[in-house]
Amino acid sequence: MSNLLPIRTYGDPILREPSRPVDAITPEINELIDDMFATMKASQGCGLAAQQIGRTEAVCVIDIPESHDLEEEKDEAPRLNPDVPLRLVLINPRIIEASSNTWGLEEGCLSFPDITGSVERAWSIVVEHLGLDGQPTTTKLQGFFARAAQHEMDHLAGTLFVDRFSYVKKLAVRNKLKHLQEDTRANLPARQLG
Ligand SMILES: [Zn+2]
């Protein structure tokens, strides 16, 4: 049975906390992963990092629709990353290679309701991480899948997508961010303040 967990929003200090590596794939880690997939799906997101549900293990999950992983925007087009499951778990992930070619795309984030903005990301990356069996493995990702993984790995380092907005875009969302931060802080349990 998986649990739906509340999603932490901007202003919650945990979103700035760097994650800690996972030592072993324990039942608790498997439960965390199940809860993260369930919470992400219920929120209609395509990626989620542990900090977004108040945890600091270096774990993120991605679940993208097949239509976001096609070589072309045509129904019959082949998948861009045919060897990668559309539901992907990255444990202790680290980018070991990134393409020099980058592309911009409008991104959103479950921790930033109502805020979107263009972010420049590497087109393809190679990620070294642990598999669900606890063994080290590498996964090559391209396109939107690579983008989603970079967004989630940023979370694990305490980096947020708004940090990567252009100067002009940062100015444009400054007030929205301020309000979101105030709302989040007003609703934080007292023990988390300070
Ligand atoms: Zn996010």
Question: Can you give me a brief rundown of this structure?
Answer:
The protein is an alpha+beta fold and 194 residues long. The chain has three helices and seven strands. It has one domain: Peptide Deformylase (Alpha-Beta Complex), CATH 3.90.45.10.
Describe the model.
Helices cover 26% and strands 24% of the residues. The protein has 194 residues and is of the alpha+beta class. The chain has a single domain, classed as Peptide Deformylase. The protein has a five-stranded antiparallel sheet. It has a two-stranded antiparallel ribbon with strand order 4-5. It is globular and about 45 Å long. The chain binds zinc ion. Zinc ion binds next to helix 2.
CATH superfamily: Peptide deformylase
Tell me the strand percentage band: 15-25%
- Structural Rg: 17 Å
Structural domain count: 1
Mean pLDDT: 95
CATH topology: Peptide Deformylase
What structural keywords apply?
single chain, 194 residues, alpha+beta, Peptide Deformylase, five-stranded antiparallel β-sheet, two-stranded antiparallel sheet, 3 helices, binds zinc ion
